[in-house]
Design a protein that fits this description.
- By secondary structure, the protein is mainly α.
- The protein has one domain: Four Helix Bundle (Hemerythrin (Met), subunit A), CATH 1.20.120.
- Helix 1 runs antiparallel to helix 4, helix 1 runs antiparallel to helix 6 and helix 2 crosses helix 3.
- The protein is rod-shaped and about 115 Å long.
- The two termini are about 60 Å apart.
């Protein structure tokens, strides 16, 4: 068995040509892959920017609705306003009647967060959608607590405490949603 190398492969010019051709093939493959990635980035970059803007608008609308509802359903503010209105109307202002009137007013304020919450759910991603659903559920719990107060007027302070607890949960979940949305909008994903 003769393992001798052909004379042509011993020539330095042939070796240089083979190495150059090999390097050219590798360079062409790398350039092709880079071109594909650049083309994909050129296509998806604007799509991602538009999607990010839609998410920003959806998150901002939902957060605005949550904060509006939080402010409109603050027990102390509504109770103070109810007391003032009852005094102006010349009605008796005792704790039981003020509490009942406050609950009656709060029960007329259903959370207006379903539409904007649905858009957040569609826009995602999952972490923000889940956080939005938790905030939406908390808003609904506040309204249900107000309805329970109307339905159980004799429970008084027990219903007020349950309402305040539900309102506090809504506040916590609204802040959690805001942080999750902020993380999503500021992440590189």
């Amino acid at each position: 068995m003769n393992l001798s190398v052909p004379a042509a492969l011993k020539d330095p010019a042939v070796i240089a040509a083979v190495i150059t051709a090999f390097v050219a093939v590798i360079a062409a493959a790398v350039a092709f892959a880079a071109g594909r990635m650049q083309g994909r980035g050129a296509h998806w970059g604007p799509v991602d920017a538009v999607r990010r803007q839609h998410q920003r608008e959806a998150y901002a609308a939902f957060l605005g609705d949550l904060w509006t509802y939080l402010g409109a359903t603050n027990w102390d503010s509504v109770k103070h306003r109810t007391t003032h209105d009852m005094l102006l109307a010349g009605l008796a202002v005792d704790e039981a009647s003020v509490t009942m009137s406050t609950f009656a007013h709060l029960a007329t304020l259903p959370p207006n967060v379903q539409a904007s919450g649905s858009v957040v759910f569609l826009e995602g991603p999952d972490l923000v959608a889940e956080s939005g659903l938790a905030a939406q559920d908390a808003a609904n719990a506040v309204w249900r607590a107000a309805m329970n107060g109307v339905m159980n007027p004799s429970a008084g302070s027990e219903m007020v405490n349950a309402y305040r607890a539900a309102h506090h949960v809504l506040h916590v979940r609204t802040n959690a949603f805001a942080l999750d949305a902020r993380w999503r909008l500021n992440s590189k994903m």
